[in-house]
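Running this now, will post back.
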Amino acid sequence: MVHGEIGVNDIAAQIISTERLDLIPLRVDHSEEMAAVLSDPALYRFIGGSPDSAADLCSRYRRLTAGSPDPGVSWLNWVIRLCDESCLTGMVQATIGPGEHGRIAEIAWMVGTPWQRRGIGAEATRGLVDWLSRQPNVQAVIAHIHPEHLASAAVATAAGLTATSCQHEGEIRWHRSVGPARLNS
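Update: finished.
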């Protein structure tokens, strides 16, 4: 179920509902709660960096919600809301840009430590990939995952992505063809 469009480029983030979750388009006022959700330094083991303060996230979220300066690229970001507990638990994102035969959506996800091992990342990512597969001209979804990040590999697998032999900056490229043509690449 999808409703409530928000965004600046031709593909806009929408609320995406799954069995237990709502993926809510990112707003600047999510920064304080998300700073707490993403505060565990262990979350950054494979991706680098460290937790941002609420003020830093506020600045980042302002830039993200303003949209990509490239009119051919859409930045789409959501927070993950666990409906039963009425709290934010993480985030998913997609950068949609030009590909060889249509658009490519590069996705990423992060679930706060207290909510891990509950299937939230897999459910949110499946919901995102299903939504992306219905967007105009999106031909494929990709993700880049550190080879030792087994939890992220499990999330990608649950969302129908398959590991490829391609690597980028030490991470494995995962791929799933989507959309009406289901082109292989």
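The chain has one domain: 2-177. More later if anyone needs it.
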